[in-house]
UniProtKB/TrEMBL annotation:
This is Acryloyl-CoA reductase. Residues 22-331 form the Enoyl reductase (ER) domain. GO terms for molecular function: acryloyl-CoA reductase (NADH) activity; acryloyl-CoA reductase (NADPH) activity. It comes from the Bacteria. It holds the Pfam family ADH_zinc_N. The lineage of its organism: Bacteria, Pseudomonadati, Pseudomonadota, Gammaproteobacteria, Chromatiales. NCBIfam families: oxido_YhdH (TIGR02823). It is an enzyme of class 1 (oxidoreductase). InterPro entries: Acrylyl-CoA_reductase_AcuI, ADH-like_C, ADH-like_N, ER, GroES-like_sf, NAD(P)-bd_dom_sf, Zn-ADH-like_protein. Keywords: Oxidoreductase. Its EC number is 1.3.1.95.
């Protein structure tokens, strides 16, 4: 073991045992962690909705216990038994079983399997990579898959639901930079000015939104990125223009879907699922290259909140689940 790895370090660990479900900051060694062939000195992580569910026990995220929380991580390799990575390499990892089946990024040092590690792409530093994190990767993966199905800016506006959240706000920025006209749906009308600054041409209050009950209604949008699910997704299927696409990446409002085959057959629309956690490695590299290049958000400074530390995670989780989230929350792990 490298002498650079201390005997003990801090980690935010989640338990479910005879003492109940709980999460706390602990001292651990690298041998307490899941197996892997690369050890990272962690610099940054982030807070996602999934992290809040896992850290509070309000969602069944972890499949094994105990595990360190944090589905995102970025840092520097300090020990490697993998041919593709050397000490000093800056790397990142999102999803890929972190804080689900293996220890996650809320740890000062982290041992991971190299097959999921992404070299930090030119154009992003480690902080920016975690301001994006799973949320930015999800938003970009949605656009990548929609464009693979033929979506183009000249087809008309893209609707983004849950627009004030992490995925939604980054999508507003990324998609507008890619040339799309953006219609942002959010329940937080006090964030409309902020969403306009990020690139939204139109903001629509979720509270004033009433979807038609007919299987097909007047087509309003050329496509959509939906982070909400349930009635929101059902309504979107009725108002997408011919040959448009819906990328579904969230289910904050529920898992149900009430629709018919008519939008898919009569209008030829596509509904594509976005699984950012289990995305294949070559596609990960491609999407991260776009995020570091022509899709890099122009307003990360407006989207990212002040960084928090491990000791702030529990309070932040509660605020996020109570609807108090806006944009992205980076977590400073290293000094």
């Amino acid at each position: 073991m490298s002498s650079e790895i201390p005997d003990s370090f801090r980690a935010f660990r989640i338990f479910d045992d005879e003492d109940g479900y709980r999460s706390e900051i602990v001292e651990q060694s690298i041998d307490d962690q899941s197996e892997g062939d690369v050890v990272i000195q962690v610099a940054w992580s982030s807070v996602n909705y999934k992290d809040a569910l896992a850290g509070t026990g309000k969602g069944k995220i972890l499949r094994d216990f105990p595990l360190n929380g944090g589905i995102d991580v970025a840092g520097t390799v300090i020990e490697s038994r993998a041919a593709d990575f050397r000490e000093g390499d800056e790397v990142l990892m999102t999803g890929s079983g972190l804080s689900e089946v293996r220890d996650g990024g809320y740890s000062e040092y982290l041992r991971v399997p190299s097959e999921w590690l992404i070299p930090r792409p030119d154009g992003l530093d480690l902080y920016e990579a975690m301001c994006l994190g799973t949320a930015g990767f999800t938003a970009a993966l949605g656009l990548y898959r929609m464009e693979a199905l033929g979506q183009t800016p000249d087809m008309g506006p893209i609707c983004i639901t849950g627009a004030s959240g992490g995925v939604g706000s980054l999508a507003v920025d990324i998609y507008s930079r890619a040339g799309y006209e953006i219609s942002a749906i959010s329940g937080k009308v006090d964030e409309f000015d902020w969403l306009h600054e990020l690139g939204a041409g139109q903001c629509i209050s979720r509270h004033d939104l009433h979807w038609p009950e007919t299987p097909l209604a007047s087509a309003r949008f050329a496509g959509a990125l939906d982070t909400v699910g349930s009635d929101m997704l059902s309504g979107l299927t009725r108002v997408i223009r011919p040959w448009g696409n819906i990328a579904a990446c969230g289910m904050a409002a529920g898992i149900g879907l009430q629709t018919t085959v008519m939008p898919f057959i009569i209008r030829g629309i596509s509904l594509v699922g976005i699984n950012s956690s289990g995305c294949a490695y070559p596609l990960r590299e491609t999407v991260w290259a776009r995020l570091a290049g022509d899709w890099k958000p122009r307003h990360l400074d407006k989207i990212a909140q002040e960084p928090i530390g491990l000791e702030d995670l529990q309070q932040t989780f509660e605020q996020l689940l109570a609807g108090g989230g806006r944009g992205r929350i980076p977590v400073r792990i290293g000094s």
